[in-house]
Amino acid sequence: DSIQRLGVHESVSAVFPPERLDAALADLDAEVELVGDDPDRVADCDGLVTFAYRDYFVDAVEWIHTIQAGYDRFPLETFESEGIVLTNSTGIHDDSVGETVAGYMLSLARRLHTYAANQQAREWDRPDWDEPFTIAGESLCVVGLGTLGRGIAERADALGMEVTGVRRTPEPVPGVEEVYSPDELHDAIEEAKFVVLAVPLTDDTRNLVGRDELDAMADDAYLLNVARGGVVDQPALVDAIERDAIAGAALDVFENEPLSEDSPLWDADDVIVTPHAAAATRDYFRSIDELVRENVARIGADEELHNRVI
Ligand code: NAD
């Protein structure tokens, strides 16, 4: 088997211009085609690179590569029964998301988000003496120690933080002083100044953080979510913030995206809202180019695919 024709679905434009990936893949030993959202053109391809999912993909192609790490939007059971191969883009977001999370923590501690908001109103408003703190010496609990979690942990360690983590296997992770198992989640999060969620959305992790977990956290702690909105019980989070059960949050992902205009999260105190952009970088298409290239070669050589989900 080999890939003769590879389609690039127009939905990748949520992350980069499809033409950039098309140009990067120009020397590939396969035809690369921008297929728009046209079922007939997709059906002419053996493989498809995409951001979105469409029902017509199932009968059209044999291999789908998603440009995201999360694959919760794809019908895995259907793919399995129809023999469709799915590969994802985990492994590439450690730097981008790691830097975003470092930025969240620095902003919350150093109050940069407040000054940026005040600047809009040309307001010179110095913080209360006990508002700012430094993240050096503060603790961070990283829930999920895969690509994202490790990228975050490494940076937090370099910034002088005390890093703990939650993972399903107990092996040590660089930069992480103590590793807890998922059933010790409460112990792991109750001491931390910052808790960051970096797990995939699965049946096990849906609503992983709800009222009980938010109450287990310290009332001066912050919840950071760069995983998926469904990992947090969002109404419980809004409630926890309103009753000061935690100090605040930095959220890149939400139950429904875009976050609705009337969500109380937009103007809650000490809540940073980012538009599912924690992993955004102008070099994103280059990482996808590498992943796709690797798997086209592996398909040609009849080897096991890299980042295979199904
Ligand atoms: P990954 O597969 O490298 O890491 C996920 C880790 O979570 C794995 O180590 C896995 O063992 C662990 N895990 C799974 N269930 C767990 C549980 N119940 N408790 C503790 N650990 C558990 O994936 P990744 O590339 O690090 O991405 C993780 C998720 O983050 C993705 O699935 C995606 O939903 C999300 N993500 C978001 C953005 C963004 O832009 N905000 C970017 C990339 C990824």
Explained architecture:
The protein has 11 helices and 12 strands. By secondary structure, it is of the alpha/beta class. Strand 10, helix 10 and strand 11 form a beta-alpha-beta unit. Helix 5 packs across helix 7. About 40% of the residues are buried. The chain binds nicotinamide-adenine-dinucleotide (NAD). Nicotinamide-adenine-dinucleotide binds near residues 69, 145, 147, 199 and 253.
Descriptive key words:
11 helices, 16% strand, 32% helix, 310 residues, five-stranded parallel beta sheet, alpha/beta, 12 strands, elongated, binds nicotinamide-adenine-dinucleotide
What's the layout of helices and strands?
Blueprint: E1 5-9, H1 18-24, E2 31-36, H2 39-43, E3 47-50, H3 57-60, E4 63-66, H4 76-82, E5 85-87, H5 94-110, H6 112-120, E6 139-143, H7 147-158, E7 162-166, E8 178-180, H8 185-190, E9 194-197, H9 211-216, E10 222-225, H10 234-242, E11 248-251, E12 271-273, H11 284-300
Parallel strand pairs: 1-2, 1-3, 3-4, 4-5, 6-7, 6-9, 7-8, 9-10, 10-11, 11-12
The chain binds nicotinamide-adenine-dinucleotide.
Strand content: 15-25%
Distance between the termini: 18 Å
Classify the secondary structure makeup into a structural class: alpha/beta
Mean pLDDT score, rounded?
97
Largest β-sheet summary: 7 strands, parallel
SSE arrangement, N to C = EHEHEHEHEHHEHEEHEHEHEEH
Strand order of the largest sheet: 8-7-6-9-10-11-12
Heterogens: nicotinamide-adenine-dinucleotide
Instruction: Determine the number of helices (DSSP H or I, runs of at least 4 residues).
Output: 11
Evaluate the radius of gyration: 21 Å
Categorize the overall geometry.
elongated
The low-confidence parts are none
Strand segment count: 12
Helix content: 25-40%
